[in-house]
Amino acid sequence: MSALSLPEVSRRPLPAELLAALQTRFGAQFVTSHAQRLAHGRDESAYPDTLPDGVVYATTGKEVVDLVKLCADFAYPLVAWGAGTSLEGHLLPIAGGITLDLSQLNQILAIHPEDMTATVQAGVTREALNAALAHTGLFFPIDPGANATLGGMASTRASGTNAVRYGTMRDNVVNVTAVLANGEVVQTGQRARKSSAGYDLTRLLVGAEGTLGIITELTVKLYPQPEAISAAVVRFPSVSAAIATVIQTIQLGVPVARCELLDQLTIEAVNAHSQTTLEPAPTLFLEFHGSPAGVAEQVAQVQAVAQEAGGADFQWATRPEDRSKLWKARHHAYFACLQLRPGARAITTDVCVPISRLGECIEATLADVGPSGLMAPILGHVGDGNFHMLMLVDPAQPAEYSLAEAISARLVERALALEGTCTGEHGVGLHKMPYLEAEVGSAGLAAMRAIKHALDPKNILNPGKIVSWA
Amino acid sequence: MSALSLPEVSRRPLPAELLAALQTRFGAQFVTSHAQRLAHGRDESAYPDTLPDGVVYATTGKEVVDLVKLCADFAYPLVAWGAGTSLEGHLLPIAGGITLDLSQLNQILAIHPEDMTATVQAGVTREALNAALAHTGLFFPIDPGANATLGGMASTRASGTNAVRYGTMRDNVVNVTAVLANGEVVQTGQRARKSSAGYDLTRLLVGAEGTLGIITELTVKLYPQPEAISAAVVRFPSVSAAIATVIQTIQLGVPVARCELLDQLTIEAVNAHSQTTLEPAPTLFLEFHGSPAGVAEQVAQVQAVAQEAGGADFQWATRPEDRSKLWKARHHAYFACLQLRPGARAITTDVCVPISRLGECIEATLADVGPSGLMAPILGHVGDGNFHMLMLVDPAQPAEYSLAEAISARLVERALALEGTCTGEHGVGLHKMPYLEAEVGSAGLAAMRAIKHALDPKNILNPGKIVSWA
Fold first, then answer.
1. pLDDT digits (tens, 9 = 90+) for B347-402
2. Which keywords has UniProt assigned to this entry (chains A, B) (predicted)?
3. Does the beta carbon of B283 lie under 8 angstroms from any beta carbon of chain A?
4. pLDDT at residue A370 above 80?
5. pLDDT tens, B257-291?
6. Sequence-distant (≥ 6) Cβ neighbours of residue B78 within 8 angstroms
7. Does the beta carbon of A292 lie under 8 angstroms from any beta carbon of chain B?
């Protein structure tokens, strides 16, 4: 039993002629086994399995071009796939189609230490990139949690824990190379760190979830590995007191690198899971990057601000082993939360609001969840105003899914009413499509649809995602 | 005599029926006097005067909607105008048309100190915004030199001296409200600091130079006014030595706020103009923002790096009056350079390359200019890899214009060959159109054209800019 129903889209069968052409062109790289199709027929969302008719494993950009051209010839859907970690049904071939697995397009093409950029193929994961950078003194900061591919992270405009300091994929992609729906290859920009040269095709493809082009390569910004890192954990009497601390920290210009809120229930989950003994209360996890003196100054500033807001039990650590112990609770929070209700499945939400509205948004959401009896820990990247709720539902109880969906819908509506967005970092996929018009208006939705029609006139690239065709 | 010839585009006369409709709808806000048309028939480029058929001064968003709808009814061109400070011919109504002057759309709509955002009408200038922010503890950092309007700065994806730390308009526009070519109004996003909600319409309109929509309002990011500011000037034996210092400074993670290079000729110009006694040599002007201790640390780090690269005569200042004295040379550089050759007109270039290629690009450009005998001081935002050359030509000598244009063309080709862009911050306008295909390829140009066709099917919004229609 799955939580969510798929939109009603007619599914095109794979034309026999295209099947033959795929077999001829891709040989063993084209697979149609049920196991492979199933492995590419689900992501981390709660939608039912939706299998592609076949999977092509590309190893070169040329293969991607050839595949797109074949699909274009038959006006047949094509879904690009990185690590399969997206959360909103982005990857499900609801109209039928071939899934293009890019995970073997995994070469690091160039590292330019002086320019602090790396150019990689789309299937390189963030961990693989950071492993390759280990000895350069540089690193790639964006960390959405999962070891996603950089192509996938670009396509969903991913961010994560340290976006508060380093920005999101929107800010950190210098250019992409993408195969458009007509099989043409575009490199959207050069390697300069800024440009005013025409429409921002880079930013158009970042976040387009594979609906406007298939990213095969990208250049990303790198940052100096911080000379010093310090971590801190501090507990608050209320969510609002924690948020007040975050707001003031940012207003003081403290360049905090991570700034995570775990609500009381999440802390309880963590204590049970990780044998920690944190007081069950809203708690901020912080990380500071800089020079040793700079980091010490940041910590002192935040400590003063936190104390004023009622923060207590301020623990901090600079040694790597102490830091990782301190952050263990945050890193294991997802699994810890799942353990709150063994056998449960987590429905993960994602909204982002102006930080001045964040306390109000979280408090109202907790009040909304309360009467439902649903366990729903909240944690988030509060420096950005972004947070998630994990609603723990029993997969055998359809009513719980409906309950969770209703709470989630109200949360999105609440976020929009507070000048926020229906998704801070997960993307639209299938699940957030109903909210996009409320967010960008009918004119905004029409503009997005016009762009889709212009760049993918046959509707072959991940059809039925972000905006409906008509 | 003007330097540059306009592209051959047939100019549509103003239909009598539209003229009547404009008079009816806009009364005294619609002007057709030669003086007003002339004032809106030139920007800071070297193109010949190109007058609109009339000027509408809008004071409300509704008026913009009505004007766009009228122009759409007659498929008649419309050019949005902010402060008229663009440099590449962006504002010239080459196909005829009405110019929409947005300078009276100048209300600051909201300042949200906790969220560090301001929402303004498009005609608000950056200086007006900063004046309004003076007592909030916040400021808007982007400074392209001219006191441009924020709508204009967004439309050209402007940046300037402190983009190295604070980013460009691309990074600092949270959302825009724009009137599309069909008269529909789109607000491209909410006020959350990040979003993954569909195609990035904000970034599509930022840098679109009024060709896809007319920005009437925008929300921008603000930053804490730095607690401490320090400025420094340091001289180098060569451009490359100065660049090496910049590269290492950035690799160390020093969050330098401004980082400007003035070449030897610029320093000579400044000495003559501002009665300074700087040694004539490539010189870096730096500014540091932070806490007092943080700024002191930054200065010490950069001083050490600069000395290693042969930097000499390191002067620094923290008191406002000393800082402004130190920066005087940079602030007056443009006028100082013009004085190198009284009566001359400056043709200003703008390229941006990866910083590792910057020394090579500047040295090769100096070598290229040398034999021409043209005076052409170079200065730039070198922390970003962005620089300008002011070629001083005698307006009475067409041959000098041709010479300058040829040097400028070679500079752009050089920048592109070095993985750079044809424009780092000025935009495409008319002048950089010939280079766009070399930069983004035929597929990239075709994609831009497809977007233009999709969003402005009658080609009424600033037609003939960025990409040609066919």
1. 999 999 999 999 999 999 999 999 999 999 999 999 999 999 999 999 899 899 99
2. FAD, Flavoprotein, Oxidoreductase, Transit peptide
3. no
4. yes
5. 999 999 999 999 999 998 888 999 999 999 999 99
6. B67, B68, B71, B97, B98, B99, B100, B214, B460, B461, B462
7. no
- Say if residue A327's pLDDT is above 90: no
CA dihedral B146, B151, B153, B156 (to 10 degrees): -130
Structure tokens at B20: 């009547």
Q: Is the pLDDT of residue B115 over 50?
A: yes
Which domains are delineated in chain A? 16-103 (3.30.43.10), 108-224 (3.30.465.10), 228-417 (3.40.462.10)
Task: Read off the tokens for A206.
Answer: 């970042």
Q: Which residues pair with A386 in a beta bridge?
A: A352, A381
Tell me how far apart the alpha carbons of residues B372 and B379 are, in angstroms, rounded to a whole number. 19
Strands A351-352 and A386-393, by their bridges, are antiparallel
- Tell me the two tokens of residue B398: 């067409």
Q: Both tokens of residue A209? A: 């979830």
The CB density around residue A30, as the number of other CB atoms within 10 Å, is: 19
The amino acid present at A17, given as its one-letter code, is: E
Spell out which residues of chain A touch residue B115, defining contact as CB-CB under 8 Å.
354-356, 385
Q: What's the full length of chain A, in residues?
A: 470
Cross-chain residue pair B189–A384, CB shorter than 8 Å = no
The interface predicted TM-score (ipTM) is 0.97
Contact A198 B436 (CB under 8 A): yes
Of A170, A190, A293, the CB nearest to B293: A293
Question: What pLDDT is stored for residue A2 in this prediction?
Answer: 59
Does the CB of A299 have a partner CB in chain B at under 8 Å?
A: no
Contacts of B345 (CB under 8 A, 6+ apart): B3, B46, B392, B393, B394, B395
| Total residues belonging to chain B | 470
CB pairs under 8 A between A and B: 304
Contact assignment for A114 to B355 by CB distance below 8 Å: yes
Among all residues of chain A, which has the CA nearest to that of B171? A171
B332 and B367 Cβ atoms separated by less than 8 Å: no
Location of structure tokens 């982007």: B142
pLDDT category of residue B8 using cuts at 50, 70 and 90 = confident
Q: Does B355 touch chain A (CB under 8 A)?
A: yes
Summarised one tens digit per residue, pLDDT across range A40-64 is 999 888 899 999 999 999 999 999 9
Q: Is residue B113 over pLDDT 50?
A: yes
- State which residue of chain B sits closest to A447, comparing Cα positions: B455
Backbone torsion region of residue A221, taken as left when φ is above 0, otherwise alpha when ψ lies between -120 and 50, otherwise beta: beta
Question: Is pLDDT above 70 for B2?
Answer: no
Q: Tell me the three state secondary structure of residue A123.
A: coil
Per-residue DSSP letter, B375 = B
B357: nearest CA in chain A?
A115
CB contact under 8 A, A180 and B117: no
Q: Please judge whether B196 and A156 are an interchain contact, meaning their C-beta atoms are less than 8 angstroms apart.
A: yes
Please indicate if any CB of chain A lies within 8 Å of the CB of B377: no
Q: Is A212 in Cβ contact with B200 (below 8 Å)?
A: no
> Which chain A residue's Cα is nearest to B179?
A443
Q: Which B residues 114-143 touch A at CB under 8 Å?
A: 114-117, 137-138
- The angle that helices A239-251 and A358-369 make with each other, rounded to 10 degrees, is 160
pLDDT for residue A31 is more than 60: yes
Q: How far is CA A350 from the centre of its chain?
A: 9
Nearest to A263 by CA among A247, A249, A283: A283
pLDDT of residue A173: 98
d(CA A74, CA A119): 33
